[in-house]
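Hi X.,

You mentioned you wanted examples for the new student's onboarding notes, showing what a folding record looks like when two proteins sit in one file. Here is a clean example. The first protein comes first, with its sequence line followed by its structure tokens.
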Amino acid sequence: MSPDPDPDLPADDETAVGGVHIKYLIHCPRQLWLYARGYRPEQRSDLVAFGEVVDDTTFTRRRDVDLGEAKIDWVTTGAVVHETKSSRAPAPGHSAQVRHYCLLLERRGVNVRGGVVHYPLIRRTTDVVWDDQARAEAEETEAKAQAVIAASTAPERLLRGKCRGCSYLDYCWGD
């Protein structure tokens, strides 16, 4: 197991919130807090490795868009954000992540139209609307992520049943 993170020193710039931060916030605020402090057990996770394989082997003609604090899977003509997930079911964090990417692009002067989450394993997509309400949700989610990252103590862990498959399980529930 990696060394314990220093709870007083976030590893990432507190103002730089990327898509992973948003995804972790929605899934588990404790996961976000640990991630921001440099605890990264994802490198040993079979599920994360599987997700990387799915990402690397689908939509191979597209190019990532690196914003520094976030890396978007790709953006099509007309400024539609695309994100690929290895999940077999849509989750709230997936759409929240795309809304966050839309917000980041808009702040850079891009006239964003919306987004699409791709689920290649089930051959489905989910459209993500980008409008005033979506912008407000993205801004609120970003503020929540910044508050969790800035907190001096870790948020409470979720009920153990919600942690199935999480690469942080050993840290949160280990003896």
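Then the second protein repeats the pattern, sequence line and then tokens:
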Amino acid sequence: MKKLLLSIILLSAGLNTFAQDRNITFYVGTQDKGANSSITRCELNLNSGQITLIDTINKSVAPGYVAISPNKRNLYAIGSDNKVSAYSIGADRKLTFLNSQPSEGMGPCHVSVHSTGKMGFVSNYGGGSFSAYNIGDDGKLSAPVYKEQYTGSGPNAKRQEKAHAHFATASPDGRYVYVTDLGSDKVMNYSVDVNTGKLTPNAAQPFFSGKPGAGPRHLIIHPAGKRLFLLNELDATVTACSIDKKGVITAIKTYPTIPADYSGPTNTSAAIHLHPNAKFVYVSNRGHNSITAFKILGNGELEMVDQQTKSIATPRDFNIDPTGKFLIVANQSTDNLVVYDVDAATGKFTFKHESIAVKLPICVAFL
């Protein structure tokens, strides 16, 4: 009996050690256009918070933004050569190039995958256009099945001289697709049929109009599908919104992402992410060089709970690991990744350590 108990204790200890030391894979996109421009594969140790660089793949030119399919079998990346590329993710987490398609516009800046995994969406910032693709069972991208060239401008003459599509995502139920146009202060609203690859303007609301000059950049939608949080780049704000059953967006309240008395270099907000427990929203600021945390209140409004700046330098992107334990910041101006501890109960986060070097990192995507 004593030997049995000892064996159980040792086995339990071994399993706990394994659980504590397990690693999670993530991929980093870069703005680097050099010969070694690569998607970087890393592992995050969920016990220590240490990051290890595993390998790189350089089949795309400046693969800035990357997105992973819902089934975790494929990764998609936009490139400065105005293409979007598909990769398979092996059992060993290695990437294998599958195919690429034209982005149908200049300066693609974002790619995303529909919740069914059947379609992909690309936003072309430079050209101000949006493209949609079917995705085959093998993960390959079809030729574009939908293209739209946006028009319009805003009051910021330097940044809103024309349309600048910046981000696209589908609603959690998969019925709608929302595309931000920083240039015209609009969020385009589409109804989508993934079985036919057809997108049509949402009859209930073809577009949502934001504050003139705000510059909508990215957005996140709460898993319940009733709340949307829109990050405005130019005026450094986040707008809490509701979404009804017809996919109609209605603004609730807008909040600053940096202190009112900030007087440093020009600030532009960059990325927005939801904590895995869906209770907190985090945004990044370039110029102020910070990450700001908001608590989601019961009525859909937000309450700022924390803001940190230590070792943060031009955070074009950041992300929170799926367990909600660590936040990784991609520092575009210092070519490195920084790790923060996250308190899932309060939403607050504390600096842990500076980590590996990655040239011009601008996207962090967890597998």
